[in-house]
Amino acid sequence: MSYAQQHQYAILTSDLDFGERLRVSGDSHPSVIQLRSELLAPENLGEMVLHALERLAHEIESGYLITLDGKKMRARTLPFPGR
């Protein structure tokens, strides 16, 4: 997380612990894109990931937790409210 934050990268992961780490830390970066699917192959989620990167480019630069579940996208601003 700190490497991504220092280099202004976003993280693409299927590990749901990143969202929890962001909640606890109160950090506003890096943006994290979580893939919530059992079918993680590019042919299953690749198009959705590319669509999210195009559609949510500003949010990714601003600091968001984005969840893709294969059917829908959800974006939450960082840091999470209440921090």
Summarize the structure.
This protein has helices spanning 2-6, 17-25, 42-55, 57-62; strands spanning 11-13, 32-35, 64-68, 73-77.
Shape: globular
Q: Spans of 5+ residues with little confidence (pLDDT < 50)?
A: none
The first-to-last residue Cα distance is 18 Å
What is the count of DSSP helices, taking H or I runs of 4+ residues? 4
With strands numbered from the N-terminus, the spatial order across the biggest sheet is 1-2-3-4
Mean pLDDT: 89
Helix and strand sequence: HEHEHHEE
Beta-strand portion reads 15-25%
Radius of gyration computed on alpha carbons: 12 Å
Helix content: 40-55%
Q: How many beta strands in the DSSP annotation? A: 4
Structural notes for this entry:
With 83 residues, the protein is an alpha/beta fold. It contains four helices and four strands; from the N terminus they run αβαβααββ. It has a four-stranded mixed sheet, with helices on both faces. α2 (17-25) links the parallel β1 (11-13) and β2. The longest helix has 14 residues, at 42-55.
